[in-house]
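Supplementary notes for students who missed Thursday's class. We covered one full example, reproduced here. Read the sequence, then the structure, then the short commentary at the end.
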Amino acid sequence: MDIEIDSSKSMRSVNHIKTLAIRGNMWLFFRYVVSGIVGILGTFYVGREVGPEIWGMFSISYVISTLLREASVKIFASLIRSPFNLYKRYVADAWSLSMVLAIVVLGLGGIPLLLVGELPSKYVLWLVLCGFVSGAIYFVHSIPRAILERNMVYNLLSIIEFADTATLYLGAAALLASLDDKIIALSVSILLRAIVSCILSISLIKLPVKFAWSLRNWGTILRGGSLYMCSDIVNWLNGLAPLVIVGGLLGASALGIAQMAFRLLAYIQGVILMMNRILFPLLARLQEAGAEVRSTISRTLHIYLLALVFVYIPLIGLSPSWVPRLLGESWRGVANMLAILGPGLIWWLLAYAIITSLYSVGFDSSALGAQIGYSAVYWALGWMMTIHYGMAGISIAYGTASFALLVVMNLVWKTRTESEGFMRELCFSVFFIIIVTMLWLTLAGRI
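Structure (token representation):
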């Protein structure tokens, strides 16, 4: 299909923009559920077939491929949010830049060839190479995907992304059944996922532009995208805090409980971040249309809080009842951690919605600076609190740092945009947390 590059026509109506956002949430949620089912079943099957050692080596290739897939679109964040009167000028330059970046990624994939003697086996070398080659393929079709993201055509994006997941696991299953070499089978499936999504992207989206070369525009695109990518890197490093701090100070048993608690919270986080994905292009389009951005963010925060009511209460408020029954008495510590981690999760999700909003309207440095500050507080406080309070320490640090981040982001929004902040949402979150905490204490027999 032909995609309208100039959004002045397709995005002129504010109501039309909001309709696309609602439909986008429905499509992404459907894709999230279906891909999750395929991913879980595929993980169980492939893991059982290959065993822990080969699965560990395969994970290297998978992580490289996935990180490069995400980076291939986020590096073009400025393209997604650029004003429509500049869009045609940038898109041709961006397309040529994506090809250059694909070549750079291929070059990075050649580095392991210089380390043949240092790697534990030739299989690791092969898997690393396949991860980088698949990443280069993702960069080849990054511009069509960025355009879909910009125009909020999430039905096609959902199809492409589901095909990516299905090809990986179904391809791995088919190849494992037909090939004797399991490493070759898994590495080919990594390449197939990128090839299939590339074919779909290019065949579904016809770009009515030609290649162009402008070093100045390349620099503008890279500056805008690099800050947005750094945001994900900071979040990824923060995700390592429980592993490093709890595992390093308290040992494997405490780390297992902490990781289980954070993994359970990740399901809530995943659904909200899926909704947050649409917020980035949505606010940029509303800003183009001259709509009130602040009211949209406020309504989004209300939706987040409403969604959390239906997930937070059964997962965290009722955890003293279901954790021992489903996981066993030895996992009772998970319920204690969930009760302390829960408030931090709510505050972090609300703060991250404001951070995404700042990125979408062009205040990248302010948003990234706040994230780095949060990361420094979280790591430092987490280390000190874990030394003194054990597993509860990392949870307390997470909640304290998240609340501070939400307060800071509220002030940053008011300062940078010269508009009203989000104190009502902050106060409601505190009230909601008090109610759920009382429920948890009652079920745990503490009151």
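Commentary. Residues 7-222 form one domain. Residues 1-11 have pLDDT under 50 and may be disordered. If anything here is unclear, bring it to office hours.
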